[in-house]
Amino acid sequence: MTEREFETWWNANRQAVLKQNKDYIERENSYKIKGIGDLIIFLIPIVAGVLFLDSGIVKHEMLNWAASAVVVIICFLLCVFIKSRTIPGETLFDIEERLKQEHWERMKNEEFCDQARA
Questions:
Q1: What Cα–Cα distance (Å) separates residue 15 from each residue in 3, 20, 27?
Q2: Which one of 17, 38, 69, 105 is CB 3.0 to 4.6 Å from 33, fit for a cystine?
């Protein structure tokens, strides 16, 4: 199997392989809201947006709402980033790359064994 054939196979079967891996599922579930600490982290953007809206920094009402939405989005992204950095272990990307490499090695070895038998 060539690397190009493997990439085609991986793109077609990626989701199925990932959903069968225990580490990937556990890591994916770790990003969900599970406790009061997580709830507080995700309430921070809403509070920041409301405080910005009430501050009156932007005088035009429509611009004030738009700027408040931007503040909420930025705060949310920061909170998700902080949460992802506080969870120990591999990231989803690292797990996916490891699984991809393991499958590539296994398929190369299986092909080598098949050629040796022939």
A1: 19, 9, 15
A2: 38
DSSP H helix total and E strand total for the chain: 5, 0
User: Could you tell me which of 26, 67, 31 has the C-alpha nearest to residue 50?
Assistant: 67
Cite the DSSP H helix spans in 20-60.
22-30, 36-55
- Work out the end-to-end distance of the chain between its first and last CA atoms, rounded to an integer number of angstroms: 16
What SS3 class is residue 45? helix
Per-residue pLDDT reduced to its tens digit, 76-112: 999 888 887 777 788 889 999 999 999 999 888 876 5
The answer to pTM > 0.90 is: no
